[in-house]
Design brief:
Helix content: over 70%
Shape: extended
Radius of gyration: 22 Å
Number of strands: 0
Strand content: under 5%
Distance between the termini: 37 Å
Order of helices and strands: HHHHHHHH
Largest sheet: none
Structural class: mainly alpha
Number of helices: 8
Length: 166
């Protein structure tokens, strides 16, 4: 093969690999934002479910059940992980709140949107938040989308940050 053909093949392979990495990166970004949205949407259910969970699975198994029951161990493991996930979520919500307090009004408004649409027991609508801030509903819908992306950074860390700036 001549050098020109080798360079062309190398360029094509490099382009294919780069495109595949971009596609995988985009899929991961979509997955993180989707899961953040699902977590927030189901926050009340997950919080209630995890409220009375004792994470000492072995104590349950030893005191009440046969330790060989793998299905029960699996169910208890899911509940324990849900409890830990909600503890982590609450910790990250507090971190997002602290972050928003130090920023400008749009960031504070985005935190407010998450807090009042998903976390607080009394759920606010787009219209109610828009009236509260004297902005359009479209602005609040955009804030909701951006807030979920920002909160995703708190939940998933530096990989999500790379996605926001990449």
């Amino acid at each position: 093969m001549d050098q020109k053909l080798i360079r062309e093949i190398t360029r094509l392979v490099t382009d294919l690999v780069r495109d595949e990495r971009k596609r995988q990166f985009k899929n991961e970004q979509t997955w993180r934002v989707k899961n953040t949205r699902l977590l927030l949407k189901n926050y009340d259910i997950l919080k209630e479910h995890s409220r009375d969970i004792d994470t000492d699975i072995d104590r349950y198994l030893k005191d009440v059940f046969n330790a060989d029951d793998l299905k029960l161990r699996s169910v208890m493991g899911y509940k324990a992980r849900t409890n830990k996930m909600m503890e982590y979520t609450d910790l990250m919500l507090q971190a997002y709140k602290n972050y928003a307090k130090k920023r400008d009004l749009p960031v504070q408004r985005r935190y407010f949107v998450i807090q009042n649409m998903y976390i607080n027991p009394q759920k606010w609508t787009f219209m109610k938040i828009a009236d509260y801030f004297n902005v359009s509903e479209k602005t609040i819908k955009r804030d909701q989308k951006e807030a979920i992306q920002e909160f995703s950074i708190f939940l998933f860390g530096i990989v999500s940050l790379e996605e926001m700036v990449g």
